[in-house]
Amino acid sequence: MTTCSVLPLIFSLCLLWRYSFLAFPVWSQGGKLMQVCKAFARVAKKHLPNTFIYFIVFVVLLIVMSANASSTSGKQFQVSAVNLCIFDNDNSEASQALTAYLSSLHHIVSLPSADRDTLQDNMYYYQIDYVLTIPAGFEEKITSQTTRGLLKTSKRKDSCSGYFVDQQIDNYVHALLLYVKSGVPVSDAITYTQNSLDDVPEVTSVSFSNTTKSKNSRMYYFFQYFPYIILMMLLEGLSPVLMAFCKPLMKTRISCGALPQSRVSLQLGLGCLIYVFLWWIGFLGIAAVIYGPSQLFSQSGCLCILNSAVFLLIATAIALLLGAFPMDYNRINMIANILGLGMSFLCGIFVPQAFLGNTVLAIGRFLPAYWYVRITNMFGWYANDVFSASTYWMCIGIQLLFFVALFAVYLCVNRQKSRQKA
Prior knowledge:
The structure is a single chain. This protein is mostly helical. It has 2 domains: 3-73 and 211-421, no CATH class; 79-207, D-Maltodextrin-Binding Protein, domain 2 (3-Layer(aba) Sandwich). The chain is built from 17 helices and 8 strands. It has helices at 3-20, 35-72, 93-103, 116-124, 138-143, 161-181, 186-198, 211-237, 239-246, 248-255, 261-291, 293-296, 299-323, 329-347, 358-364, 368-379, 389-421; strands spanning 28-29, 32-33, 78-79, 83-88, 107-108, 130-134, 152-155, 206-207. The strands form 3 sheets. The chain has a 4-stranded mixed sheet, with helices on one face. The protein has a two-stranded antiparallel sheet with strand order 1-2. β4 (83-88), α3 (93-103) and β5 form a beta-alpha-beta unit. The longest helix has 38 residues, at 35-72.
C-alpha cells in the first residue's frame, strides 16, 4: 500500500462529502422537499472543515503507523539477548550462579529500586524486557528441594521473549534440583549444572512467526484509535449542528412552516443518521485501501467492524446529548477534548490496558471505550488476550447498554425542555 493509492481515495471522499449533502433533501412528501434536512446540510457544511482536519490527520498517521508495523512485523517475535533485570535478595552461591548464567545469555540492566512503578515505566519504554527477583532463602529452598515460591518473574506481555527466558530459568533450576536430589552438595551441583547446560547447543535467536497476527497488528491501529477520532469528530461536527436547531430564531422559523413537529424531528434524525453513516463509510473505505478488502472483511475484521459500529452509536448518543445544551463552540471544543482525551487515557486507547494500574482500569470500566478496547485487544498483537466469543458478545452487550442509557437521557432532556417551553 502506497500513499499514491490513498490520495485518490481521499480526493474522492472530499468530492463525496462536497456533494453528498445534496442528497439530503431528495425524499419528498406531497411535492415538498425536506427543508429541515436541507437546513441541516447547510449548517453541517459550515463545520465540515473542522471535522475533516481530524479525518485527514488520522489517515496520515494511520498510513505511517501501518507502514511501520509492516516493516517490523517480521521481528515482532524474534528473541536474541533480551534486556534482563535481576534483583538478588538471597546473595548466596546458588543465586549468584543463576545470575552469572543469565548474564552470559542476556543483557543485564541495573535499576535503582524494584518498586512496581519503576518496573512498569522501564517496561513501557522498552528499557527492560524481563524482571527476575530471587527471594531470600533461595539456596535453602534448593537444598530442601522446595519449589514453591522459588522465584518471582515479570515480563512484557507483547513479546514472546519472556517465555524464552522462562524456559532457560526452568532448565537451570530443574537441572540444579536434579543434582541436589541425587545427593550432590549445592556447590558441586552448581558446577555440574553449568557444565551440563554448556553442552547444550547455543541458541542465539529464536523466532516465533505468526503471519495472521502480523497482519492483524497493522489493522489493529485503525480500530484501536477509532473511538477517539470518531468521538472528537461527532462532538465538534454534529453537536454544533444540533445546537443551531435549538436556537430560538431557528425554532421560530421552523414552527412557522407547515411541517408538524413530528416531521421535523424525523427529518432531523434522518440528517444525523446520514451524517454519521457517511463518516463511518469514509473510515471503512480508507481501511479497505490501506489493508485490503480481504483483510478488512475477514472474520476478525468483520467482528471489529461490528464493534466500531456499536461504538459509533455511543458516540452519536453523546453528541446528541451535548447538542441538547446550547453553548458556544469554544465550550464544545473544551468538552470534546475532556471526553475524548479522558476516555482515551483511562480506557486504554492511547496507553495499552496492560500498562494501566488497577485503579485506572477500575475507573475505565465505567466508560464505554474500555469495553471497546477489550475487544480490540483480542485481535491485536499488543495484548495477550485470547479471543473468546462469550467475552466478545459480553463487551458488545455492555456497549449497547451504554448507548441505551445515553439515548434515554437525551430523550428525557429533550422532553423536559419541551415541557418548560410549553
